Amino acid sequence: MSAMTSATTPEKVKRTYKTKESGPHDFWNELHPVVQKNYGKWKYHENPRPGVLMNVAESGDVLYTVRAGTQRQNTVDNLRFICDLADKYSDGHLRFTIRNNVEFLTPNWENVEPLIAELEQNGYPVGGTNNSITAIAHTQGWLHCDIPATDASGVVKSMMDELITEFRKDDMPAKVRISTSCCAINCGGNADIAVVVRHTRPPRINHDILANICELPKAVARCPVAAIRPTTVNGRPSLMVVEEKCMYCGACFGACPAMEINHPDHSTFAVWVGGKNSNARSKPSAMKLVAHGIPNNPPRWPEVNDTVRTILTAYKKSARAFERVGEWIDRIGWKNFFEQTGLNFDENMIDDYRHARTTFNRSAHIRF
Amino acid sequence: MSTNGENGNGTKFLNPTPMLDELEKGPWPSFITGFKKLAERTKKTMLRGVMDQLEYSYHTKMGYWKGGLVTVQGYGAGIISRYSMIQDKYPEAREFHTMRFQPPPGLHYSTKTLRTVCDIWEKYGSGIIATHGQTGNLMLQGITEANVQACFDEMNQAGWDLGGAGATVRTGTSCIGPARCDDSCYDTLGMHKKVLDHFTGQVHRPELPYKTKFKFSGCPNDCVNSVMRSDFSVIGTWRDDIQVNQVEVKNWIKEYGMDSLVNNVITRCPTKAITLKGEELEINNKDCVRCMHCINAMNKALHIGKDRGVTLLLGGKNHLKVGAMLGSVIVPFMKMDTEEDMDAFIELAEKIIEWWDDNAFDHERVGETVERIGMKVFLKDVGLDADPNMVVQPRDNPYFKTPY
Q1: Structural domain contains residue B1
Q2: What is the pLDDT along chain B (404 residues), one digit of tens a residue?
Q3: Contacts of residue A253 in chain B, CB cutoff 8 Å?
Q4: Min Cα separation A180/chain B (Å)
Q5: Which of A19, A182, B120, B261 has the smallest number of CB atoms closer than 10 Å to its CB?
Q6: Are strands B173-174 and B214-217 parallel, antiparallel or unpaired?
């Protein structure tokens, strides 16, 4: 990020408070007393119903967890409401998941149904457990990020509106993790299905201001394919991009805001499938590109939703129990995946970047 | 339930946002509805400016935030500065900085703690809170620079500290671990706290080639996605035998059927380590790779082993600039029960970070540095022995040097 001089601040009273570099907030006192009592001494778990977990300790104590979806971009108002529910039903204790769901932890089974009812009445869907399609991992987009080609919360809202039925149930073949990302960095992460911006043109350079706001050597070094060179434009030092080498990753834009990569029409979406982080059955796998050039159409992104729904429909129809999306594809083969989803396999899906050879079929194993 | 924000009768605080209003439709919780309610209640002009600018972004399909340098005394990281690039058009969106705070490991909250955050934040900032950022921060979104120090001081007094940003050690993430899970092989929450406390200086002051992240999963299910989302992926494991309760195995068969046992458990073992003897399961633990599938499927009957510890993988990172990388094994097993065990881990992490700091290019993640320099040199420099668990296969080319 370029350094900007900040607005002058008014005269302040001399600060006397001394910072405590305290690191992560303490966690022990945030834990429910039943959790503290049974810390590290859990015996087994069951799934009483979608959206509810049951964990049994070696002591015989039982802990129920009710999980519900949230906006993730919350406000103090709805967080206070969530606190009200936690005070009423879970002894003042709650937590969040890494996919932005909220969880209420209580030893009292009698609290579970009333809590579910109040959550649903107030617009918080209960679900996201086990073989559901859980909430979508995402970040900031146009709301806050400095390099986004699209919005994050808006895309997720429109996708989860369509997927909420599968969020509330848990009858997919295996759990489904979806992520979205607003640029090619992919902050949403590796997932069963990921929707990630892909730029399709080199950056557009503002030569008038580049040398004023960017460190030229930093931007040159940032390019993974050495496509950026120093140059002079209208007598000013600036940078140029060798367009045949550029593959539109946008890394330079992060280093130098004068190299604009985002474009309202040329920054489109790619869809990736088969990412898996868990070690269960098969090793973790990186996700693979199966569609690209999908338009970026706020406020509801219907084309993205169509593509994701197509993939999920094919997956639900033909995957076996305990098969994640990537494992399903490993079994049926990529040829069948593209046929069953109707997506188009084109020459761009054959890798020609760094580790290409490892992705080629070095065998005579063919599917017809 | 919701309104459309039209300013027709003059009593509404917000300006019209027809595109954003479309995101109030539908059953999933709407962040736009939340923002509108907050804005109408608090009348904070920053919220109006941000919604105006967001609406504009939806029309033009471009973003309008730029970074800068906003910090608190003594720190060089943790606040994501945002200035509007179209302040002339939306002066109320002039500043919209985010403060990243490190939450309790496992994202556990008492309502007392969460309400304290809400009260402090409403006093100084917009009232928008993201639970949570992808790396693991609690994100208080929308504050002016003038308020940053005072807000931080009150949060700090309440036990909160800023997270990492830029070329720092970043905020960590841990799975729920011993706070609920019967598969947890070590204290993920305790280790998270201890390790991040140790590296606090490098969280707050950027001095590294680029970012580096620690994530702590209690078992190979890797629920925090550490293999791909962190440089240092700490995954709980065990090195002795899976514990088998044959009575519960029989109960499982009664409930789910023998065909389910065969089709969903035995045949899914990646190394064919499970055999059936009548109605008893026999696990050849020498062949077991600790994938967790059978334990997941039969959690009353099968349990993690007793001799527990962690596997450490290095080098995970996301797409930019070379494509996503999954971490790979550099320590197959180390114990993680005692303070001394965690100290040993910290010592190794320090050595690796120092090596990386000495050898990396600017903006190069540690996994990329190892790839560029070579695993052989890396292992030698940080003092780790070669182990077959580090590879899928030995090399299939003969081009390496031995001393002569």
Answers
A1: yes
A2: 344 444 444 458 999 999 999 999 999 999 999 999 999 999 999 999 999 999 999 999 999 999 999 999 999 999 999 999 999 999 999 999 999 999 999 999 999 999 999 999 999 999 999 999 999 999 999 999 999 999 999 999 999 999 999 999 999 999 999 999 999 999 999 999 999 999 999 999 999 999 999 999 999 999 999 999 999 999 999 999 999 999 999 999 999 999 999 999 999 999 999 999 998 999 999 999 999 999 999 999 999 999 999 999 999 998 887 888 999 999 999 999 999 999 999 999 999 999 999 999 999 999 999 999 999 999 999 999 999 999 999 998 899 989 89
A3: none
A4: 11
A5: A19
A6: parallel
CB contact under 8 A, B221 and A280: yes
Residues of A in contact with B20 (CB under 8 A): 154, 299
Range of the domain at B31: 1-165
CA dist A280 and B226 (Å) reads 14
Of B125, B176, B119, B71, the closest CA to residue A95 belongs to B176
Do A196 and A271 sit in the same domain of this protein? yes
Residue indicated by tokens 């992919």: A186
Three-state secondary-structure class, residue A251: helix
Alpha-carbon distance of A321 to A338, in angstroms, equals 21
Shortest CA distance from B300: residue in chain A: A44
Statement to judge: residues B181 and B313 lie in one domain = yes
At B44 the three-state DSSP class reads coil
Do A187 and A284 belong together in one domain?
yes
B277 and B193, same structural domain?
A: no
- From the candidates B50, B230, B302, B320, which should be mutated to test the interface with A, based on the most A CB atoms within 10 A? B320
